[in-house]
Design goal:
Elements: H1 9-12, E1 16-19, E2 23-27, E3 31-36, E4 41-46, H2 47-56, H3 61-68, H4 73-85, E5 89-92, E6 115-120, H5 128-137, E7 142-150, H6 153-161, E8 170-176, H7 183-192, E9 196-202, E10 220-222, H8 245-251, E11 261-264, E12 270-271, H9 288-291, E13 327-328, E14 334-335, E15 342-343, E16 348-349
Parallel strand pairs: 6-7, 6-11, 7-8, 8-9, 9-10
Antiparallel strand pairs: 1-5, 2-3, 3-4, 11-12, 13-14, 15-16
The protein binds iron/sulfur cluster.
Length: about 350
Amino acid sequence: MHKLSNYTPKEQAIKRFLFFAECFLVKGVLRSAIYDVSRDTYRLIPNHLLEMIEQFEGKTLAEVKAFYGAENEAIVDKYFAFLEQGEYILWCDEAELALFPKIDLVWDYPAQISNAIIDIDNNTDHPFSKIFTELEQLGCKHLQIRSFSTQTVAYWDNLLQHLKNSRFQSVDILTKYDAVISLEMIKMLYEKYLRIHSFIVHSAPEYVYPATEDNITHKLAFVKDVIQDAQNCKKIQKGYFQVNMQLFMEAHYHHTYFNRKLCIDTNGAIKNCNTLSESFGNVKDTLLKDAIEQDGFQALWHVKKEETKVCQDCEFRYMCVDARKPLKGDDGLFYHETPCPYDPCTAKWMEVTEMTELER
Ligand code: SF4
């Protein structure tokens, strides 16, 4: 049971608290976070609460209170009320504690490439059939196609036809606003092609999205943010944090953005990220499977936030998908040339006025 008060006073004296295995504690330099990977949510908590859980899990409430003393009894009660209300703990007998083993931190993925980004503009002439076939052969399941210029609905209809009998699981489309494209038109595409996960029209004059009851709010939307090129997509923002078992485990061993990712820029250059200059060939004359085996292509896959300055102190480090390229310093740690808008030492974000609509 989640609440100790549901037991008799005699039972309460012997019940021990157990932190659910699907909730993970992540300590930051100033505050901590509970990652609830069963609900894909997180809650920020004080470091003192994390320390209490780590030090006393498996103990009774009386034992915890005895350690902290009468002067801290109210705060201990407050902490346990929070843990019970969030369903982060249960109360059990001593013999039951062993029945709830912790989850091992392990990660693997059954493919060489898990996701890909393909950029297009007015001058792009990608061999889409070749690209999609080769990505499928590499096991890629998730595609993002970004257009920095306007495209007709017929263009997207034709492109999505290529994917109709594919094994891709999801396709996210980002395209530039054109007055002739309406929300109804993208809804029509969304309903026709089940692989579309999201279809966002950027640079729009106003923010428009379907009514909530459509259950597709924010998957189809017109947004005012102006996205001129790949550099605009290199943002770190709260809305991009993802809490899930897959990312949480992967982040312990790999870079959350670069690992198993392949990008193709508007000219067809094959890259780790389209904000970077280093290319591993052009998709017109290079096989994707050969590109990813070239020296250096996989180097960034193995850079963890735990060994990256600033990020290693951040409570968001296992949910943050940060596209900045990490560089290795003389001390063996990685660093970034541009600062993150979040400072883990102050727990503050850059001023809201400096952020765009999507970031808020
Ligand atoms: S400090 Fe690092 S982990 Fe934290 S939000 Fe910024 S980029 Fe992400």
